Amino acid sequence: MRLRALLAAPLLLAPLTPAISATPPKTGAICSKAGITRNYDGKKYTCIKSGKKLVWNKGVTIKSPAPTPAQTTPPMPTPSPTPSPNPTPIQSPTTSPSPTPSPSPSPSQSPNQNELDGKLCATEKEISRNVAGEYWCLKDNNGVLRWSKNMNPSTSSGTIFKQKISDVSYTVPTQPSQSLELCKIQQVNYQQGELKTGFPTPVPSYKSQGIVKWALVPLEFSDLPGEPNFMDRVSKEMQSASDWADNSSEGKFKIEWQVYDKWVRLPGTSKDYLIPPESNGGFIAPDQQRFWQRAITEADKYVDFTGVQAVQFILPAGQQIVKYGIKGNNWYDVVKNYTTSEGTKIDLFSIPSTFNDEPNSGRNYWSWWMYHFMGGLGIAKYGGSTATELHTYLIQGSTEGARELGGWIRFLVGWMPESRVYCRQANEVSTLEMTLIPLTENKQQGIKLAVFPISKTKSLILESRRVTQFSCTTPTERNGVLAYVYDATLGHMSEYFTAIAPPGRLNESASCFASQSRDLLLHEGDRVTYEGITIEMLAHGDFDRVRITRNS
Length: 552
Known about the structure:
By secondary structure, this protein is mainly β.
């Protein structure tokens, strides 16, 4: 049956500017300028940026200065200058130069040799990192600039370490590309029906090019009614899914949304749909399949599913009956065998988990939807359940992090135009310079992906990354070149990519619930070598300029 549906439109919400709180400082209260400090009741409070607001942090207890022997005779205890308490990370004001991390020390240096806490420094808000930790150059109680150790490094939701920006214009590679067929590395040990990591291009289970229609359908229960303003939760998520698909496919794949604007009440109570812990292993669980069958059957009475590819259900805010989410594709019989009253076969659906609504978690609806969608294109999941270095860099590895569809996968599924791929066998590279266009930049023509086959089963791959509207942020601005190796002997749920990254970098936390990860990107001046091939990052700006040299 068809009742009313409406097309979703993004809601643009203007942030309100609250009044600045007066003294004394209070944790969470509004303050006027990032970086200012105020002492009150034995604590030092720092004004930090939280989201779009400037607020006072929790404060740090002010320590009494420790006595040290004076240089004169007779010896008298003289208090040393009081260093600043351990700071909470703050974003650098736009008017100040971006802090640059200190070079990583050699392994022979010990933490004690690198302890900076309390020592004089020169530039306020400069940040230094070494094996002993992370230090901020801040004024102490006497107005003297001293290094202050951050006891909670990498917990800021903002970016602290900005990359150097140079003027980089696009230039063609200094050696011509060879046939792309040389770079379409074929996956070995592939079994029919498995998700793929390499060529030939996998056959998708549903439409992956052109315009598709996705339906958003809210479900409620007699004992768990839905809230009237549910679109406040999901309108931006829907727009992000559409934007991500459009950007990642360079306009080849577009999602149009159809929203059913009333809650569909399912029979019984919410407890009848509770997914117990033993049924959280995937859609093979009978409890999950029954939920789908009851949801689609009831929704079909009200919603017009004509031409709909995917159904994204949502549940009332605060629900606790589905903690890990339910998602199914058309290779499951209970999905494949259902036909709506309009004659439509649904290709995929999802019912969200509790974590999709956790505030500031980064576990968004949209990234979960797109992660699920990519599996139907035949793309293998990257890695297993334990997070490793590249997990957060790939949407097929984690829904929290960069949320990026890597260049190799774009090439594999046909979402990257072949004119954007550079191919040259590694043994035929002497010295090559080239400019890489960022993956997410679709207006500028040029090379986005460089593939250098090393053997029949391995390729060295370069792509340019940028922090985007889809990314969780980290203290280090992750703009630069990702160098990695594809291993065609590895398949679904394996680590078929290995990053080639500069050593000595520390794990960082992200602004969402992503696993901690190192900055794996090459930045201006960085150099790495893999199997006799050296990659140098010459310049970073709107584009990235690199040099590839094969050592003889």
